[in-house]
Each structure stands twice: as C-alpha cells, then as structure tokens.
Amino acid sequence: MSQAELAQIVSLLQQGNLQAAEALCHAVLEDDATNPDAFYYLGAVANLRGQQDEALSRFDKAISLDSGKGLFWYGKAVVYQQRKLVAEAIESYRQAIAAQPDLFEARFNLAGLLREAQPNEAESHYLKLLESQPKHRDVLNQLGGLARRRGLMPDAIEYYRRALEVDPQFAEASNNLGIIFQDQNRLDESVEAFEQALSSRPDIPELHNNLGNVLKIKGQLEKAEACYREAIRLNPGYASPYRNLGLLLRGVGQIEPAISHLRQALSVSPDSIETLLDLADTLLMQNHAQEAVELYERAFSIAPRPAIRIKLARVLPRIYESLAELEAWRDRFTRQFERLAQSPIRLSNPLTEVGAANFYLAYHGLDNRALHEQVARLFASADPWKTNVCDYAEKGVSVLRNLKPRIGFLSTYFLRGHTIAKLYAGFIEKLSNERFEVFAYLPEGKARLEVPAHVTSRCFNPENLARTAELVGQDKLDALFYPDIGMEPLTYFMGFHRLAPVQCVSWGHPDTTGISSIDYFISSRLLEPENAQSYYTERLALLDTLPVYYHRPVLEEETLDREYFGFSTMEHVYLCPQSLFKFHPEFDALLAQILREDPHGRLVLVNANYPEWGEMLLARFQRTMPDVAHRIKLFQRLGRREFFSLLMLADVALDTIHFGGGNTTYETLAFGTPIVTLPQTFMRSRVTYGCYQKMGITDMVVGSAREYIDKAVRLGGDRDYRMVMRQQILTRNHLLYEDMDAVRQLEEFFLEVIASGAGSR
Description:
Number of strands: 14
Number of helices: 35
Mean pLDDT: 93
Structural class: alpha/beta
Distance between the termini: 91 Å
Strand content: 5-15%
Radius of gyration: 34 Å
Low-confidence stretches: none
Helix content: 40-55%
Strand order of the largest sheet: 5-4-3-6-7-8-9
C-alpha cells in the first residue's frame, strides 16, 4: 500500500465515508493479497459499523501477516475493551506497546485499564507518556487521580493545576481540584474550582451537584438548593442531587419535601444503600417507625453491614399511640441489641455509619442503665473503630498535667439560643480564670456560642469524629466536661475516647451514658433520690445547688395578650410547653381528667419539632379523651416573644410526668407562672421539683396523680390561690438565676477529682 493510498483511507475514515474506505482497501488487496495494512483498515471499518467479530478477524489477519506492528494489536485491544474483555484488552495493548513503544493511544488506554488493579504500573505508563508530551492535560489529570487515590494530595493538586495551565477550561481537572479542596475543608477554594469548571461546562449536572455540596457545608443553603435543582433539570435521571436536596431540606425541617426527593432518588437508583438509609432515617424522624424498619431491612438485604443491623435495632418511635405500643418497641429494642451482642461487630466510623443509638429511651419512664451499658459495650468492642480510638490521657492520674488545671467544655449544642447553651454557657463564662485554664469546644458555623476573651475556643466539625478527638486531645486537658451525651452522635462516640484523666457529663440529656470512660455524672442533692447511684454507670457527683448557671430570661418587647392567642377571658389556660416526645401515654389520663373537672379549662401545647408529631399526638388524644380533645390547642413553632408571652399569660403550667421540664422550667418560673409537678423515680422527672427545692416552695409539688389533678384544677380555677403562688415564685425565683454557688462548687469538684486522680471508679 502506497503512502498516498494509506493517507486517502485514513481521510475517508475520518470523514465517515466507510464504504469508500472499504472499497479502497479491497482495491489494494486485489494488487497485493497479503497487504497487512489493508486488512487492518478493513477491521477498522468493520468496528465502526459495529461488526466486532468481523473486526477481530481482520485484525488477526493483519497481525498474522505482520505481528511487529503495534497499530494492529492496538485495533484488536480497542475491540476487546469495547466488549469489556479487560484481560484480553490489556494483553493486546501490551503487545502493541512492545511492538511500538511510542504508540501513545495504546499506552494511555492500557494505563486507564490498570488504574484500579495495578496503580503502580498505570503510573509508570502515564509518566512515560509525560516524558514525550509534558503538557498533555489528560495525562496530567490521570496522574492527579492516582496521587489522590494514594492520599498524596499535594502531588494531586500540583498535577491538576498543571493540567489547568495547559487548558484553563478543562472542567474535569477543576472538578477534581474542587473535590480535594472540599475534603481538606478549603471551602472557598473548592467553590472557586467548581465555578471555574462550570464556566466552561455549565451543561454538566455533576458539577452543579458538587458545587451544591460545598455551598451546603458553607451554610449557603439557598444557593446549594439552586445547584441541586439545576443538576436535576439537566439530568432528571441523576440520583445524587435528589438525595442531596432531600438531605438539605431535612436539615431545615422540611420533612415532607425531603421525603419526596429521597423517594425520587430511590426511584432513579433503587439499590442505593445510602438513599435507603437516608429515607429510613427521615421517615423515622417523622415517626413512621415501621416503614423505616422495612427500608433498613431492604438495605440490609442488599448490603448486610453491621451498621445497618444497629440502625435496625435502635428504631424507636417519637410519639406512641399507647403504653402497649411503647412496651412492644422497647422490648424489640432490647431483643435486637441482645442478638447483636452475640457476635463481633465491625465498624470503621460509627458516627457516619450508625449515628445516634439510644436517645429516645430516656422518655420511657424506666431504668435505662442496663440497656445503655449493653449498647455501649457493643460499640466499645467494635473493630476496627474502637481499637483505632486514640486516647490522649491516662485515666485517674494523681498529678496535675498543667500548672493551672485545664478544663474543657464540649457540646455540639453550644449554639446561640440553644437549651444547652442556656444551661451551661455560664460555667464557661464564670469559671475562675485565675484558678483554671478554660477551653470551649464549639461547633463550626455562624450560630456558635460567643465566649469571653480569657477562654480558649476551638471550633470542630461535628461530622469528623477523629479530628475532633485529636483537637481536644492535643490540649492536654485535666478534665473534660460534656454538658450532654446522648442527644446526638458526635459527643456520644467522643465519650469512648479518653481525652482527659477526668471526664464528666451532666444533665443536658438526663440519663446515664453507659460508657465506661465517662467518670462522673454531675447532678444535685436537690434532684436525686436516695438510691440514685444505682441508675448511673458514672459516679454521681452531687452539688448542694442546681448544677447550672442560667441567665434570667427577659422579654424586652411588649407582652402579647390572650386575644392574640385566641383565648377568652373565661378560659383557664393550662399550658404544657414540653417537647411532644415527652408526652408519655400514661400522662393522657391526667390531662383528660383536668379538662373534665374544669369545664373552662383549655389545654395548650407547643410543637417546636415536626408538624406530623403534633398531628399524631392530637390523633392519640382523640382516642384517649374524645370527650375533651376539642379543648386542646396546639401551637406550631412560636417565636421568642410569642412563647414568653404564652408563659406569662398561662394560668398554670403542667410538668410532664416521667421526663419533665428543664430549660422550660427556668423560663416559666422566671415569669412567676406556677408549675404543677409530680417528681418520680428518675432525675429527669425532678428538675422542676429541684427548682422548687432551691426556692423553698413546696405547694406545687405533688405525690400522686390524684394530687396532680387536684392541684392543677385549683390553680386553674382559684384566681386568689393562683396569685398567691405566683407571688411566692416571683419573690424567690432570683435564687435560680446567675447562681455563683454552682460555679464555685463545680470549681471545687474539679480541683478535688483532678488532684486525687479520682477518675478511676
């Protein structure tokens, strides 16, 4: 075949004129029946027509005539790769390179096939290509990918940047840079990289989705939502933006739209484990426990991971229809974790794999110590997570680690306006900086708590367990104080680390943790019954005062009146402003009887969570008290002015049984509104009682359900008695707020346990 004929065949193929190229090849063969190039190009024509068997036959013929020409082996390798015959393709590419080492396409394709299984050889091929073409953007991009896979991020970044120097509009390299910067928490650079990619390729939905993920982390939720919606518009069959949009909406409390988008993601990708779990988690938040179980089971059938078994085991509704339903779900929880304990569990990162395990047990009104211990033992024995936990301190050391004791306070709820901040931020502010070095560990984000200048503040990512533990451990604390453990997953799993010789928790979540590395539960003699220690795995540390420093709530604005809320002057307003999951089924009988005995009574509830919870609770009331349920009013998500006004105008507040008020008790008593409370076995039902103890007021503390009803009805209907009780509270409630005794007693506790090495139990 002459050079002119060869050039003409190649030109015809490039033009897509397969018929003319084929005819010219046959013409060559008429003159030279053993011309290998003609057979090769006939194979190329056949392959372009989709006739792969014919193509392989022609390539084999060419090779049989001249096995030393790399192009012939390359053609055969391409067909094998198209057929996903990877081993055969690799062998043919190797033959092509052996015959013709400078055949760029063969080496590039071979490296691509080797990237996953043999990355070292793949890298050597890419580096060889780079020697001949040092500014080849695709080679640089692939080398960046290999470096990233090995964790060599500086090298990866360098390769991607070199690719972009060659082609600033190379969207793939910009996208890869954006992903690395996101992983490194270099969020502004990540946004810049994704936006650069989109400037050249706004039609790629993956880029919009990736940019949305970073904007979401930065808290720019409206922009993130717009990115996800654009990705969906560009490709309605792309599952990730549906899922990500669903999670974003879930995070801002839009549960119904979140579920809708997660279901859409699942319809596009029915076997996506992550989406199945996300949807199950979201349905559980909405109180659809049984459907959540079914989705967890479906996920487990696809991928039988231990973490999914734990998710299945820990399912508990938020609102129960009856006491029998509560008992059935609790029994299921117990049996599921007993089964889990019978075989080893493997977890790499329980924070992301499992999430919170047992928060809602606290609302059952029962002793949870054994269950919490059982769950904690399960996590403590889980490999490789627990064996990889890095402890930064020895338990119970008897010598100070620092000249001035270092005390750390950590909560993901150290946020402006959050209950935990209201209860415990005062300790951070007031702990003596002459006696202690105080460290505050705050969640990243704009809403985090502001602390005084003398306090060392550290910001942590609530989604990164290992990094947060490292951050705390490096400060070499003498004592670490968790206001709450059990409300969310990060601090729960942080508790398994030994980050300070003395580690303690308090009643931000008033239940034992079950975790052996938490040494003390800080409570009060005003709160605990005589045998309280038996309910805790931690050693009880009992202050003589209430263990909080709470700033007195004040309403600066004008109070809203009864007319604003729709109450008549004849009605007696019984306010129960607790979270709806505190409404134990046994409480219904007390509420019903109050309304029956006070025909002018109006029971008022406040739902700060999900609207569906309120609907479910009201539906329960329709079954348990159908004769008076019409006199129950439920408000959704009141603002500060509305909520404080409601506290002030209520005739009487009702403390829920089994798990009573905490923050709401401090807010209600600040305005003098009397609260009826029935303290029971566990401290979580005794905070209002403790406040009354502190004030020296006993009239509103009752000892039985009958007394509770009688006291509530008397306060609701007897204005003179109510005014006397209100005045008593207003006269004495100053004792509850800005309590420096609590600060001083906490300081003495820290000094004593640090000096004595009393972290060991």
